[in-house]
Structure formats: structure tokens, C-alpha cells
Amino acid sequence: MKSRSWIAVTVLTGLLLGAMPGGASAATVTKSQAAKVTKAFKDLLLALDKQREDADDVLSAGLDEQESIYMNSMSLAEKSFQNSVSPVDLKFQTDRAAAQSILDNAKARFPDVAQVRVLVNTLMRPTLYKCPAPFMSAYSGTMMIKRYCSNYQQQPTGYGAEDWQKGDIATFANWDNSINNDYDKELTSGGVIPLYPAELLEVTGLMGSQPKVIADLTAAYNTKRSSIVTKYNTSKESISKTLLDAQTSLTEEFQSQIDLLDSQQPAVVAAITASKRAEKDYASFDKSFVTAYQFNENLIQLTAIADAPVLSTISTLGFSTIVRVTRLAEQGTAIDKKYTYKSALVFNSAVGKAFVTNSEFRATLRFFQSGYLKLLPKGTVKTL
Rounded to two decimals, what is the model's pTM? Predict the structure, then answer.
């Protein structure tokens, strides 16, 4: 049986008794007094509905408040993140741009300082040098191209070719740091001499060092920014979890209240029905109410057993008991349609006390009796 625990009994009793005037001194219950009991129970049902609405309002307000807290927290986290990451981004962009500018300037200067004078008739590493445009050879008196140079295969055709000659001016094609040793060997071989040795040393030094400077800057920046982003993401996850926990708590509390109201509502509806039926025998209202309330409980329980799957109930109660229960449920249903106090009394007697003596049912019945005790004349409530 679903619990009907009256956790809100103080509030509900106040609502119930607040609708009832003080007990009368007459020896019997009047029709109007009985009707006031029914009205009080109806007011109690309305109060339950109002509590449901209030619970819904509290939930909505709570969820809105938590959403507002969440948005504010997220905004503060975003602001903190930007305050932390923006200076890091700006410094990296500035430092990297400066380092890149140094590298770009060095590369731009390289062609102007990369010239060497050939001191021998045969270069050891001719592919390190640019292929010059076709030229008038001092030896042959015809237009020639150099035989060996960096892009020899792409040179124009139709010309004769000659080797590098002593006294030629050659220009390094590029400066590849991966083969730096080749340049060093070439410069120290005695076969060439730089025209601008100091400038060449400076430029090639920068072309060699600046890529590492940029790589180191990028690595340090990525590490620092990653740490800030991780902290930011952790903060957002914490804020989201706080919101989820708060929403869960509010929803669970709301559902708990709704479950309580749902468990109480059928009892109040049953009390209203019992009170309406007791109005017909208002002179003995208390006995009539108790009989009607017990009748309702007996019918509910019998119907539940009769409607249960046959196999599951036969194994527990036995076939003959199931037949008897089914017949009683049918009789109760017929009485319920044309209710009278006497027929309900006979029905309750036939069913017995199995369903109306448990502590939960008795406590609920006493709750309602305690309510109308304050309304009805003294001495007329004798079953409490």
C-alpha cells in the first residue's frame, strides 16, 4: 500500500480546523453541521492543490535562481580566463613577430652578402651556388652557362657550358641549416673567399638561430596557454556540476513534496466521499463517516486483489478465496453505485477487519476524525 504519511499534518490540520467553528453544545449533529465537514474536507483538497502549485513555483524560482548563478559564474570564469590568456597571447604574438622579422630581414639580406670570389678552377661543391644567367665567356668569346650549379637542369638550352673559373663571382643559392657543415667546409676549403665575410657570418647566424628562437617561443607559449585553458575548463566543469547538483537537489525535493501530496490526495478524496455519504445520516455522522470511509478502503483493496493476475493470486490465496474476494468486490461495486449506510455496514462486516486495522489506515482515519471533532457537537464523536 502506498504510504499516506501525513508529514504536513500540522499545516493540513490548521487548514482543516481553520475552516471549522468551535464545537456546538447540542446533543445531535445537524444537517448543516455535517455539510460544513464536507466543505472543510473539500477546502483541504484545494489546499493540497495549492501546495502543489506552491511547490511548482518554488521549484521554478529555485531553478531560475540557480540558472542565474550559473550564468554569472560562467561570465566571471570567462572574464578571468580572458584576463589571464590575453596578455599571454599578446606577448607571444609580439615576441614571435619580432623573431620572425629578424629572420625575414636576414633572409632578405642574404643574397646581397652571399657572394664569394672563386680562387680555384674547380669548385668542390658547385651545387651550393646559384646558376648565373647566360654570359659571354672570356675564354671562348661565346654565350655560355655554368656546367654545375644549384638548378643546372632548369637552365636555358642552346648554350655551351663551362666550369667555374678562378676569379668568378659566385653567389650561394640559399642557406639550408640542415647541411650547414657543407657551407662551413666550402668557406674553409680555400677554394672561395667571401666578399662580405662579417655580414655573411651575421646573416647566416641569424638564419640558423631564429627558427629555434621561434620554436622555443611557440613551445613555451603553448605550454602556458594550455595550463590556462585547462584551469578554465576545470572551472567551467565545476560550475556546471554545481548547477547540476543544485538542479537535482531542487527537483528531488520537489518530487518528494509532490509524492507526499499525491499520497495524501486519495485519502482526502475518500474523506470527501465518506462525508457526503454520512450527510445522509447526519444525526449519526461519526458512525456513518467511519463506515463509509472503511467501505471505501475495503472496496479498493478487494478490487486490487480481484484485478490481479489469477496465477499470482491463486498461489498465494487459493482458488476458493479468490472466488470469494471477487464476489465481494462485485457486491462492493454495486453498493458503491447505490450507496446506503446499512448496505455498507453489512458489506464491511462481511469483509472483516483485515484492511482497516493496520496502523497507517487507522492513523489517517483518526486524522480526519480529529478535524471534525472540533465542528460537531460534544459527545457525537464516539468512535475516535
Answer: 0.68
